[in-house]
Amino acid sequence: MNNEADKLAADVVDHMMTNDLFSQWLGIEVLSIKEGYSKIKMTVRKEMINGFGIVHGGIAFSLADSAFAFACNNRNVLSVALDTSINFTKPVHVGDELTAEAKEIHNGKSTGLYHINVSNQSGHIVALFKGTCFRTHRKLLKEE
Known about the structure:
Layout: H1 3-19, H2 21-26, E1 29-34, E2 37-43, H3 57-73, E3 79-88, E4 97-107, E5 111-119, E6 125-135
């Protein structure tokens, strides 16, 4: 990866986070952005509990989905989810600090494939997410 591409990637994600009210509500902090890659984290809050006293699966899904979006859009090509799936491997609890790391598996002209691991503060993987995106060929940021 080159520095220019990684700077563009960071600028795109900064722009996305400014306008992404849901990721802001989740409390997402961006840790690392590189072309085709993102790493983000959040802390689980009590309002994220489901009726079983564990954290709603949508929270881990949403964190992974945000990491997916940041990784697949950061070349400044508007990309949207085409297909996603998730496997939950461990329960998540209030106070857990979750980290999602998105890695690009395939970067094609019209699609991209990404694997996202969601882990807790102990390094245990709590969810595995796979996402395929569709590339619209529209820009998120105006190029100079």
